[in-house]
Amino acid sequence: MDDLIDDSIFELSTEEFCKKYDANSLDPSIRNSDVITKRLKGEAFRKLDYKEYPTYKKIGVILVCIFVLPLRLLSFFVFFILCTIPVIVNEYIEDTKGNCIENKDSPYYQMSYDEIPKSKKGAFIIKLCMSHFIKIALRLVFAFNSITINDKRIRDKNGKAETAPIIVSNHSSLMDILFITSYYDVVPSFVALEWIGNVPFIGSVAKAMQSVFVNPSKGKGITKKIQEHAELWENGNIPPVVIFPEGTTTNGKFLIEFKNGAFYPFKPIQPVLIHYKFKYFNPCWVELSALKYFSNLLTQWSNSVEITFLPVVRPTEEEKKDVTKYRDRLQEIMARELETISLNYSNRSQKLIYKDYINNITTFEECEKRYDELYSKSK
């Protein structure tokens, strides 16, 4: 972003700005220009990798498509089977629903999947498939040949790292889930909408991973479920739950507004940072369709990521009286470690509007009108 662009651009009316900077041009380089990005406050959502591929890079992509991509696609299907089928088969055999949830004689009668401890065999299969196999797939399929782990957690005299019931991470890509799943000490739970548990195949895996299913329309929201899960974790045998407080992906250069859900239980939190390094293609997912994103990701010779586990953070007595102070302190810790800043005026709703503009779905005037409506509702 060009720091020389001053705030005078916000003094222009929508019509004046649109005319001066040709904001309705269909040229992507204009719609993604620094001045329009700043006006629409889209700094956290632009791709950052509009640099033209040099000739050698284009040749490299062609060679990958011819010789490497077929092997990667084949490897994807092989590892997809290795990572999911054993988990699904074991879940079917153990029949958590029949033996526990619907069994009146079970101590877990009518409890949720995330509240029921896994058997030793089930835990072993989850660790093998969701951690070890995914680690291999990240390198062979997704070309993450450079994976750097920085573990800054406090350890006891036996070398065991301190952990927490809640894991909070910045969110830049769908790959974040795979990295946390495979490189954290245990395979954690994730928050998922209730209907996902009913999806064939995917739902079985989500249940086996003890996902925290939520349905806000039933009145028992995310915060309540997270608190219950965290309290069970403290009693042992339940994995921690991962939450992305930004609620959407960014380009990795900034942190955006944190939601309060992860912080209201006032439990210790384990911050995890994921930083993708790139020269031409940014593995962060902000504008591209899923097909185009994975096409770009799988046709790179090599991708690079750095994962940092920070020390566990606990709320102070003062922060227990004001959740925003706890939230803001943790966001500040993460931003400082990432060497970035927080843009708390940016959020998921704003991103969806900005994305429509970047993809030529809406005009600049329509974009600003939707922004005004969004900001008026938030006041």
Automatic annotation (TrEMBL):
GO terms (BP aspect): phospholipid biosynthetic process
InterPro entries hit by this protein: LPCAT1-like, Plipid/glycerol_acylTrfase
Pathways involved: Lipid metabolism
Classification via Pfam families: Acyltransferase
Entry protein name: Acyltransferase
Chain ranges of the Phospholipid/glycerol acyltransferase domain: 165-277
GO molecular function: O-acyltransferase activity
Primary localization: membrane
Chain segments annotated as transmembrane: 61-89
Domain of life: Eukaryota
UniProt-listed SUPFAM superfamilies: Glycerol-3-phosphate (1)-acyltransferase (SSF69593)
Record carries keyword Acyltransferase: yes
GO cellular component, one term: membrane
Record-stated family: Belongs to the 1-acyl-sn-glycerol-3-phosphate acyltransferase family.
Compartments reported by the entry: Membrane
